[in-house]
Design goal:
Layout lengths: L13 E8 L8 E5 L9 H15 L3 E6 L2 E7 L3 H10 L2 E5 L3
Parallel strand pairs: 1-5
Antiparallel strand pairs: 1-2, 2-4, 3-4
């Protein structure tokens, strides 16, 4: 008899956390993506490139902020579902606000 093949776990680029913020932004909502420091293959340049791709695809503004070793992408607008879909398509696991 043959043993059924088990599926290998899907490889991911890493885990990111998304949250929605309005504090200190004049009431405007932004989506903040963090967790890049846990992914060794993503340096500041790679995170900046990812931020540029997200902004271009979503047609909105945003920035990449660095504070110590923490890097985060701030995307303007309140559309975490689209940001989530783009990050998942690039191979990331996303936690936090995804709708």
């Amino acid at each position: 008899t043959t043993v059924p093949a088990t599926k290998a776990p899907k490889s991911t680029a890493g885990r990111l956390v998304m949250r929605r913020e309005t504090k200190h932004r004049g009431g405007k909502t932004v989506v903040v993506v963090t967790g890049f420091e846990t992914i060794p293959s993503l340096d500041a340049k790679a995170v900046m490139t990812l931020a540029a791709e997200l902004k271009k695809t979503l047609g909105c503004g945003g920035t990449m902020e660095e504070e110590g070793t923490e890097r985060r992408i701030v995307i303007q607008g309140d559309d975490p579902a689209r940001v989530n879909a783009l990050l998942v398509a690039r191979g990331f696991r996303v936690s936090g606000v995804t709708r």
